[in-house]
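Q: What structure does this chain adopt?
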Amino acid sequence: MAPAISIPQVLGTTGLFFTGALIMRGAGCAINDLWDRKLDPHVERTRFRPIARGAISPGKALAFTGTQLLAGLGILLQFPYQCLWYGIPSLLLVGSYPLAKRVTYYPQAVLGLTFSWGAIMGFPALGIDLIAESDALMAAAALYASCVSWTVLYDMIYAHMDIRDDVAAGIKSIALRHEHNTKAVLSGLAVAQVALLAAAGVAAGAGPVFFIGSCGSAALTLGIMIRKVHLKSTQSCWWWFKNGCLLTGGGISLGMLLEYFTCRTRGRNDH
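A:
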């Protein structure tokens, strides 16, 4: 059977998601910098952020954040109305992440729950009713959990850049909690990420192209990153944080794209 979702619909939805992600990431960063304006000056990497160094006042930053949130709402309104019920609750996560680093060594888990929300939003955005379709709900839940694991993984590498300053500033992170067994934790997260991604594929009825392309490339790139990253080197952590997520994300996206076109071709041949 040919996919019910057309190429223009996929491209249009992807464009809206990309724009919305940029806007909401900016809003999340602004909220984070507002909460951390008294902590950032004590961390080498963040002390020159606009609010921390006094280049932008908290009032102006708040106004800017409000503008971004309104723009994000404008993007959300372009989707089916059901997306409002999925999208608006994510604001609670956006606002709570900066607080998490003050009370738990696992703020990256909260970040993962926040950054990965689009994995759920994509289904209703394409007109798929998660409540009515159990297979879609299982696929969305597995994909969301996979993205959470992935986010925690690469942000744990990122957090290693600030370990010394975080101790002095009283900031908690998963890198501090597992400083001496980080690679074991990273490996466990990688296994969870790939396994959950595969589970999402099974629930969605994906074919070999997805499992080889998306799951296989994720396992390969994550394995290389975990092996090669030097956690004591700020430069190495930054390179792998910046490029590792692009390599893994690119492989997953390419596998999904090839799976989509394979399904379309198979559907046409069946007719």
